[in-house]
Each structure stands twice: as C-alpha cells, then as structure tokens.
C-alpha cells in the first residue's frame, strides 16, 4: 500500500507506561480492589487541556451576554465532552472540569456585578446550578434511549 509511518506518533511502548489514542489514555495498573492488573481508560491530558482551552476561548469575564446565554453557550460543549468520555475512569477529570466551569461562570458573574475576586460567597455552587449551569453528575448525563447499533 506504500504507506509511510509518522515517526513522532508511532512507537512501541509498554502498556504500564500507557499510550494515547483518539483522546483516551490507556494504561495497565493494579486494581485497588482486586489487586489484579487491569487496563484503565482515562481522558488524555491533551483532551482535558483542549476542552479547557475551548471554553476559555468562548467565555470571558467581560462577555457582553446575559448569564442565560453564557450557560447556553457552555452547556452543549461540556455535555458533549462528558458524554464522549462517560465510559472511562474519568471521575477526576470530570471533577476538574466541573471546578473549571464553575470558576469561569463565577468570575463572569462577579465581574458583571462590579465585584472583586472570585465571588465564592456571593455565588456558591448551588446558586450556579440554580441559574442553569451544567452539573457533571450521574443524573445529568444524557443517554440515548436506544444504542446506535440497535437502530435498524
């Protein structure tokens, strides 16, 4: 087929060192419950940084939009990312993303109300969620009613 391999992307590695593939990081390690070696799948660090950079680009403290528009802008991006990685061991990545999104929204609201700082007292998490900010929890994942492979 006369294909050439990219030397930067193609290499042989140990499974314990892990490797990245289409946004996932595959790594073999001991299970904390059974003690057996199993393969864990995490969102890759590059994928986590990419979603944060995208949200940072789209959202600004000085954005001349309403809080509702801010939420409508962020919600589909975050939910798409979460649904893509929902079948992995991503709880730490989800917590970090949730903290990042909440901080961005809180800073936006504080700047909008001519306040200083991060606004932790004025805008606690429950107030952000009441305003419609996405909550990355088990009840917020949007599952398709039928798997795609069952549609015929």
Explain what this protein looks like in three dimensions.
By secondary structure, the protein is α+β, with helices and mostly antiparallel strands. The chain has one domain. It is 39% helix and 11% strand. A three-stranded antiparallel beta sheet has the order 1-2-3. The chain is elongated. The two termini are 35 Å apart.
Keywords:
152 residues; alpha+beta; 3-stranded antiparallel beta sheet; 3 strands; 39% helix; elongated
Low-confidence stretches: none
The secondary structure category is alpha+beta
Name the overall outline: elongated
| Biggest pleated-sheet summary | 3 strands, antiparallel
* Number of contiguous helices: 4
The assembly state of the depicted protein chains is: single chain
Number of strands: 3
Strand order in space, largest sheet: 1-2-3
The overall pLDDT average reads: 87
Lay out the secondary structure.
Elements: E1 19-21, E2 24-30, E3 37-43, H1 45-58, H2 67-84, H3 91-112, H4 125-130
Antiparallel strand pairs: 1-2, 2-3
Helix pairs in contact: 1-3, 2-3
Summarize the structure.
The chain has helices at residues 45-58, 67-84, 91-112, 125-130; strands spanning 19-21, 24-30, 37-43.
